[in-house]
Amino acid sequence: MREVSPAPVPKVRLYVEKPEEREERWFVNVGHVTEGGRRRTEPHAHPAYGQVIFVRQGRGTMNLEGSSVPFIGPCALLLPHECVHGLDYEIDVDRWVVTIEQTYLEQINAKLSEFIQLWAEPRVIPLSYLPEGASDFYNLIRRVEQEVRSKAVGHVIGTESLLTSILLTLVRGTRLDQIDKEGATRNAIRLADRFRELIHQHYRENLRLQDYASKMAVSPTQLRAACVAATGLSPNKLIHARLITEAKRNLIFGNQTIEQIAYGLGFIDTAYFTRFFRKEVGQSPSQFRAESRDQAPR
Which terminus of the chain has fewer CB atoms gathered within 10 Å of its CB, N or C? Predict the structure, then answer.
C-alpha cells in the first residue's frame, strides 16, 4: 500500500502546553477573551483536550466539519478533542474558554454516563432554559478560574467538583439522543468509550472486530453488546462512522485525490471506497466534495 499523508487540518496547541511557561503540569485552563471587533479562526483541531466556550453575549457561526452552525449568547459551545472546527465571532462577543486536558476530562466523564454522551459530538447548548441559567454558569466558570489559580489545599479536588457542576449544567440543558439504556451498565458505557478511543487510534488499519476485542481482552460478543447498549450502534457502525468522518475532512479540507484518500484510509481500491462512501452518505465522494466546497462559509 502506498504511503499517503493525511489532509492538512491544523492541530492547534495552547500556550498552557508549553512546559517553560508553567511550573507544573496543567489539566484545566480558563481564559477570558475581551478584545473587541470581529474575530475569526480557520478550521483546526485540538489533539489533547476538550473545550467549553461560554458565550456570555453576542453571536456568531461555527464551522463544524465544513457545516455552518449559528449560535447566540448566552450559550455554551462544546468542542470535543480532535473535533475540526472554525469560529466566526461577530463584533464584541464576550466569551470565556475552559480548556480541559483529555485524560483528566475522561476521569470526570466516568462519573456519569450522560457526560460521555455529552462529549460524543460538538454541540451548541443554549443557557436560557433556566431563568438564572447564564448567570449561574458564569459564576461557576469564575469559581473554576479562581480555584485553578489557587494553591490552597485541595485546589485540584475543588476544581474537579466545579467542572462536574459545569458538565451537569450542560447535560441538563441538552437533549441527548434517546438511547435504550436497558442493560447499559456503567461497565458497558466505559467499554464502548474505550472502543471509540481504539477506533480513533487504528481506524486506518482496517482491523477486524476480533482484533479490537483482543486488544480490549473481551469477546466480540461482549463488545457488540456493550456498544449497542451504550450507543445504540453496532461496533461496525461506529468504525464506519469514524471512517466517514475522516473521509469528509479529507474531501473538504484537503487537496488529495479521491484515490489518495481511499488508500490513506486503508481501502484496497478507489471503487470500493466510493461504494462504501455512497452507501453511508448517499452520494459519491466527488459529489460530496463539490457540494461541500460550494456551501462552505467564506
Answer: C
In the chain, domain spans: 15-172, 181-231, 234-298
Q: Is 157 exposed, middle or buried (0-12, 13-18, 19+ CB in 10 A)?
A: exposed
Q: Options 2.40.240.10, 3.20.20.450, 3.40.50.720, 2.60.120.280; which CATH number does 15-172 get?
A: 2.60.120.280
Residue 134 DSSP label: H
pLDDT string in tens for the chain (298-residue length): 344 444 455 554 554 444 444 445 568 889 888 766 678 887 777 778 899 999 988 888 888 766 788 998 899 999 988 788 888 888 778 889 999 988 888 888 878 878 887 887 788 998 876 667 788 999 999 999 998 888 788 888 899 999 999 999 998 888 665 444 444 566 777 788 889 889 988 999 989 888 998 888 888 888 888 888 777 788 999 999 889 988 988 888 888 899 999 999 999 889 999 999 999 888 899 998 888 776 655 5
Which grid cell sits at 93?
Answer: 462577543
